[in-house]
Design a protein that fits this description.
CATH topology of chain B: Rossmann fold
Number of helices of chain A: 13
Number of domains of chain B: 1
Structural class of chain B: alpha/beta
Shape of chain A: flat
Number of strands of chain B: 12
CATH class of chain B: Alpha Beta
Distance between the termini of chain B: 39 Å
Oligomer: heterotrimer
Distance between the termini of chain A: 14 Å
Largest sheet of chain B: 8 strands, mixed
Number of helices of chain B: 13
Order of helices and strands of chain A: HHHHHHHHEEHHHHH
Radius of gyration of chain B: 21 Å
Radius of gyration of chain A: 26 Å
Largest interface: A-C, 40 and 38 residues
Chain lengths: 349, 332, 310
């Protein structure tokens, strides 16, 4: 167990190192901090002096180490736009994104497993084919488009009148096909409950949850079909195994065979692949937050790009890199704990 | 009445373009405590026959006709719920490769206890005790430790012993063993086979042993049947068939066994190969490879004739018998 | 007596590919739709009723007209107009053209990179393999979209808005190309590793062929079939990635929009009821990606070793 942790941590550090080098390169290449900090009226000599002071004339390697050392202590520079330490800005925006991710993850978890399993056990049922059909379409719709469509349907509302309005049944059918909208599609609303630090939660008020619905569903919409397909594919393969046939030969009921014998084996590769999807999730939060103007780190990053707020961009990359590395390590750990054939020295049995 | 009676069993595979017949008109019986060997090359249908008893043939296979009478009730016509009461309880199965048969993510204990609890109301502790006693019976060292181990932590031979123990858990009447030693090391094969034989004798268990290994069949089974291309072509007491095989195919199988004769002798091979399910020849399926083939062999499948205590499906054999009878008649 | 030689067309007609294509209705429909869209995009200048980027042709009085069949529509603009009065049909045709261009271009680039790196990693092994695959792993774990966003952001900041806009098409092809090479490289590498063990490679080595020649002329042709399958799906992915980048403002500018940037600019008007400005390009985007994905699915099923299924 210890060997495993050591190995993983050293891998993580390596990746963080690479990310920090890239981040530093971006910072060094992109912005001239001087331009942002001092006005036009400052003379060339004074600029030189300030440069010297700030250590911008030192070798790249020295500058990098300074950067890395600062980063390790939590100092990732000061945002040009906000005028505050970038880490503070990020921490202020982070809870909003985390809540969005939690909301989407809940939806994915609750729906993907039952649907995926059902589609694997009864592949010929029309319900299965229906879900798989929707999944294929779902993968083809980019997340921001789903968001826009959801906004149109459930926030603005769609009134269709294909049937005659003057007849009672016509009105009813038209009403059934139309949507009223009404769900909020902008931001997080005003009723947030402070939890701790900078974390104001939307989960504890009615208005907060209403605001969470459309963005969470949008974010889940791209991952849900992925997971449904994945679970179905893995489970179908597992169901062909000898040990499943053997379990039936022992007289075990379908429930136990499917939901213990088969599912446990199915979830192993799903955990692995699922872990990789976390990376995609981060990219999609940027898109989702843009559509809903959700005040999370994704929107913050995008605005930083538009404003050329280099320190904030770099800080975001470092933090996101760290989150990746931590999550991937945790996923590996989880897999190692769940799969008995993997000894936690990091080697396969 | 026999314990198990298979009558005219027909098993087909539903594929695009029509059904393929895997088993045709299979009939045999198994008595209490009797050990029956099912012999044949790969693709002959032995495994299909074994799995069809408990209706476990993988889709798209299905039982198209015939009866499987166990203590008078037809298993082929039974629903899943009723069948489950028999599977692992009255009739147990042993598969070929124990590594693939045991679920890699569940402990041995879990997989044993669930078998018991599926058929009997019993506490987990009591079930564990039953499991331990069976593990002892199959001579596994430190059984308590094994219960908490995972399949990959045991050796191949031990895994197969566990499978045998699981088969014995509910004290079944019949054990169907599909090539139980093929996936094991040669040295372990003999051990496992001896263990199986001993257990069957001890508890008077009926055994249906599917194998391609004539050596194992001759040592373990009392009766045997030879399958070719989905049909039983010879059936009877093992000793008689091994010593004096009647059907040309069986004769070929036995001649193909390496003999401890002169070194450097060429091994005998039956020319040709077993036809695939799509290309089953008309009439007697063996006729393209048979040196005694006559016109009749191409037309219809021969009926069984009795030679000694053995039933054989072969026109050549039935002609020979008729000639003998004819000669005897003439003598009188 | 001469023996008839079978022409290439005849061989294709008898091939398994054509046979299973004919039988798969979804594949046929998808292909027809895709073909129609590609042709419409190629001939956009001829087909479009107006050139939407010719400022002289736009009249702001025509802005926000709904599509045909709804109240207030104008028959000159069958799909309605956007906020500047541009004809939606025209903008969509031109937009599809840009999206398809970038999609194909990006896939060509990532295929080239992926094949080269995959061959090198697989054939040379050792250090080269480790380094390349490490980079690929990191890129993949960040997700290609994220990588594209980061690279896009960096380029946009370096080049500035104006210049970025002018060379946007090439920028996007480049960005998506380098973001997505790992997928193809991995597949090629896996194929190469499998092929390396085969005897014809030993034979080529014994005959003294240079490494490069062995890699490209002997091994590569045998690894192509999975690449075709992936490349098809990657075209769809590239189109989506480009749409996402454009939507975020890191892609095509308004003066030369792709479907993604059309959606972006249209989004501002959805609240005022002019849903067609954003949703019609969206619909076209979805259909385009869907048919490519369906064809990719079919291709994958066809190219895989046939499993004996009922």
């Amino acid at each position: 167990m210890l060997a495993f942790l050591v190995q993983r941590i050293s891998q993580a550090l390596l990746v963080m190192f690479v990310i920090s080098v890239i981040a530093f390169a971006i910072q060094d290449g992109l912005g001239d901090p001087l331009q942002q900090m001092v006005g036009m009226s400052v003379s060339q000599d004074e600029r030189e002096a300030i440069r010297e002071d700030m250590g911008l004339n030192d070798s790249l390697v020295v500058q990098y180490f300074r950067f890395a050392a600062n980063a390790a202590q939590g100092d990732l520079g000061t945002s040009y736009f906000y005028g505050k330490p970038t880490l503070d800005v990020i921490l202020e925006h982070l809870p909003a994104t985390l809540e969005l991710v939690i909301g989407a993850s809940l939806i994915i978890l609750v729906f993907s497993v039952p649907i995926g399993v059902y589609a694997a056990i009864r592949p010929q049922a029309w319900l299965s084919k229906f879900f798989m059909g929707i999944s294929t379409v779902g993968i083809s719709i980019p997340v921001f488009l789903t968001a826009i469509v959801l906004i149109q349907l459930f926030s603005i509302g769609v009134a269709v009148n294909p049937f005659p309005q003057d007849a009672g049944w016509g009105r009813w059918l038209n009403g059934a096909l139309s949507t009223e909208g009404g769900l909020p599609s902008y931001g997080r609303g005003d009723e947030l409950t402070p939890l701790f630090g900078t974390w104001n939660s939307g989960f504890f008020s009615h208005d907060g949850i209403l605001h969470l619905i459309l963005p969470s569903v949008s974010l889940a919409s791209i991952m849900l079909p992925l997971f449904i397909r994945l679970i179905r594919a893995e489970m179908m393969e597992v169901l062909q195994s000898d040990y499943i046939r053997y379990a039936r030969a022992k007289g075990l009921g379908a429930g136990r065979v499917n939901f213990l014998h088969a599912l446990k084996n199915t979830m192993l590769p799903v955990i692995t692949v699922g872990g990789v999807q976390i990376g995609i999730m981060v990219a999609y939060t940027i898109l989702t937050e843009t559509v809903f103007q959700w005040p999370g780190v994704g929107l913050m990053f995008l605005e930083a790009i538009t404003r050329s707020d280099i320190p904030l961009i770099v800080a975001y990359l470092m933090v996101v890199g760290l989150i990746f590395v931590i999550t991937n390590t945790l996923v590996d750990l989880l897999y190692g704990l769940v799969n008995p054939t993997v000894k936690l020295t990091g080697k396969k049995a | 009445m026999s314990l198990l009676e298979v009558k005219d069993l027909d098993v087909r595979f539903a594929v695009r373009g029509g059904d393929l017949t895997a088993l045709r008109g299979i009939s045999f019986t198994l008595d209490k405590g009797e050990r029956l060997g099912l012999v044949g090359e790969s693709g002959a249908g032995k495994s299909v026959a074994a799995f069809s008893i408990l209706n476990l043939i993988a889709r798209p296979g299905y039982i198209a006709g015939g009866q499987i009478l166990f203590e008078g009730r037809d298993l082929a016509a039974m629903g899943e719920r009723e069948l489950r009461k028999i599977r692992g309880n009255r009739i147990a199965m042993i598969f070929q490769d124990p590594m693939m048969t045991l679920n890699p993510v569940l402990t041995i204990g879990t997989q044993m206890v669930e078998s018991i609890k599926a058929h009997r109301r019993i506490s987990k502790k009591a079930a564990r005790d039953v499991a331990l006693s069976k593990l002892n019976k199959v001579q596994i060292p430190s059984p308590e430790k094994r219960l908490d181990q995972y399949p990959h932590e045991l050796s191949g031979g031990m895994r197969q012993r566990v499978i045998i123990a699981i088969a014995l858990l509910m004290e079944p009447e019949i054990i169907i063993a599909d090539e139980p030693t093929t996936a094991l090391d040669v040295t372990i094969q003999a051990e496992i086979m001896a263990l199986l034989l001993e257990l069957c004798e001890q508890d008077n268990l009926a055994l249906m042993l599917i194998t391609h290994d004539l050596g194992v069949v001759s040592q373990v089974s009392q009766r045997m049947l030879v399958m070719y291309s989905g049909r039983i072509i010879e059936q009877g007491p093992t000793r008689e068939i091994i010593n004096d095989a009647q059907h040309p195919y069986t004769q070929g199988l036995i001649s193909a066994l390496p003999q401890m004769g002169e070194p450097g002798q060429r091994l005998f091979q039956i020319p040709g190969a077993m036809p695939s399910l799509k290309n089953v020849p008309s009439g007697c399926p063996f006729h393209p490879r048979c040196k005694f083939a006559m016109e009749q062999c191409e037309l219809t499948m021969p009926e069984y004739v009795r030679s000694g205590n053995v039933d054989v499906a072969c026109y050549e054999v039935s002609n020979l018998i008729a000639r003998e009878k004819g000669m005897q008649k003439v003598e009188f | 007596m001469t023996t008839a030689t079978i022409s290439r067309w005849d061989r294709f007609r008898e091939s398994f590919l054509w046979y299973s294509f004919k039988r798969d209705k979804i594949a046929i429909i998808s292909f027809i739709v895709l073909l129609a869209m590609v042709l419409a995009a190629i001939f956009a200048p001829l087909l479009a009723p107006a050139d939407p980027y010719d400022l002289a042709q736009i009249n702001i009085m025509n802005s926000e007209l709904p599509p045909a069949g709804m109240a207030g529509s104008d028959p000159a603009f069958p799909l309605g107009t956007d906020a500047q009065g541009r004809d939606m049909l025209s903008t969509i045709l031109y937009g599809t053209r840009v999206s398809l261009l970038i999609g194909f271009g990006a896939v060509v680039l990532q295929a080239a990179l992926g094949i080269v790196f995959g061959l090198l990693a697989g054939y040379l092994g050792g250090r080269v393999d480790s380094i390349l695959m490490r980079i690929a792993d990191v890129q993949l774990s960040f997700s290609t979209l994220m990588v594209a966003i980061i690279v896009g952001a960096v380029f946009k900041a370096s080049f500035g808005n104006l210049m970025f806009g002018e060379i946007a098409i090439y920028m996007l092809i480049f960005i998506i190309g380098i973001a997505e090479w790992p997928q193809i490289a991995r597949t090629v590498r896996a194929s190469v590793l499998a092929e390396k063990k085969k005897e014809y490679v030993d034979a080529a080595k014994v005959m003294g062929f240079r490494t490069g020649r062995i890699m490209f002329r002997h091994i590569l042709p045998n690894t192509l079939s999975p690449i075709f399958v992936i490349a098809t799906v990657q075209i769809a992915n590239a189109i989506i990635s480009e749409a996402a980048l454009s939507f975020l403002g890191l892609g095509m500018p308004e003066t030369q929009p792709s479907l993604g940037s059309l959606i972006k600019s249209g989004f501002d008007y959805i609240q005022s009821g002019s849903w067609w400005i954003t949703l019609l390009p969206g619909l076209v985007l979805v259909v385009l990606v869907l048919v490519i994905n369906l064809l990719g699915d079919w291709l994958r099923d066809v190219m895989n070793p046939r499993l004996y299924k009922g």
